[in-house]
Predict the 3D structure of the following.
Amino acid sequence: MGITIKHAGKAVPKLVVKNEDLNKFVDTDNEWIVARTGITERRIATSESGLDLAVDAAKIALEGENYEEIGLVIVATVTPDKLVPSMGAMVKRELNLPNAIAFDINTACSGFIYAIWIAEALMKNGMVNKVNGVHTNTINKALIIGVERLSRIVNWTDRGTCILFGDGAGAAVLENNPKEKGILASFVKNYDDTTDSLTCGMEFLKTPFTDEDLDNPEQQTLSMQGSQVFKFAVNAIGEVMERSLELAGLTADDIAYYVPHQANLRIISSAAKKFKQPIEKFQISLNETGNVSAASVPMALYDIMNTAKIKKGDKIMLVGFGGGLSAGAVIFEV
Ligand SMILES: CC(C)(COP(=O)(O)OP(=O)(O)OC[C@H]1O[C@@H](n2cnc3c(N)ncnc32)[C@H](O)[C@@H]1OP(=O)(O)O)[C@@H](O)C(=O)NCCC(=O)NCCS
């Protein structure tokens, strides 16, 4: 029995913002951004909501599927359109998925990996809902989405962060298929962010019971100690890659393609070097997207699945790392 990753989908906002365009807001230049990150442009949502992007990506991933068979929707995001309802609930309603259980998770840029880890466990264990003794759900197919509008939480006066991020959505359909091997290993790990190296607060209202100062807008934007997060990322990506390979009983050479979180080309290159793998085996989409947090991995997955490179039987590794701190990897056979 295997939980397969069948199809992927991707949606990006229309507005392309090039590195040069950022000079209007902060003291930076194209050469610095390209050399330090590999990013040349990103998409920024203007008229598109997160729900629009999530639904558009999902529709591509769901092409040819019977919507009634989708038993689970998990949306990974740190920038939901609303706190209530969840993005999952809104996607379920918008797409009319009558039999889906739907919810959101937040493990920052590792979100898509954690969502697959959850879905795999639920699908493998034959998880069912029972109402008055009658099964109402068996999860044979799941829709997993990563969606972000990071442009709404980025501090556009901080050149150390605003150059890195973008908006977009990616999606994948998982199926329980006894004829396929599907997911061979999935591994996730949390690391304590003891120095608050990557944080983003949110807007709260004052209550009549406290004189706490809640007006500092800096607390409501993404804040990062870049070099510290860089070191964490290099170590974490190495650890989760190693552990997932061990779990699958594979070596790095057995993996046909790697789909890493798209934060920084230098982080990806360090992983390639550590595992003695050619950089060509790593999907690089960040030059056109920047870091799209939970959406980065599924967007890059769509990019690689839609090239002629992949063939039946290839083993692919998805790798994520991010705030929390969190990291994880999934290895699956196509
Ligand atoms: C953010 C990041 C690209 C910065 O690169 P770095 O090599 O660490 O650069 P530093 O922060 O040490 O800054 C080096 C210099 O460049 C400057 N600088 C920072 N941002 C700049 C920008 N956008 N344009 C031009 N110069 C910039 C700094 O002010 C500093 O100048 P100084 O030496 O005069 O003080 C890098 O730390 C990084 O990618 N970190 C990980 C981020 C990440 O992956 N986050 C998401 C995790 S999911």
About this structure: Helices lie at 30-37, 50-61, 87-95, 111-124, 226-248, 265-274, 286-289, 296-305. Residues 2-179 form a domain with the Peroxisomal Thiolase; Chain A, domain 1 fold (CATH 3.40.47.10). The CA atoms of residues 43 and 63 lie 24 Å apart. Residues 28, 32-33, 36-37, 109, 159-160, 163, 224, 226-227, 229-230, 233, 263-264, 291, 321-322 surround coenzyme A (CB under 6 Å).
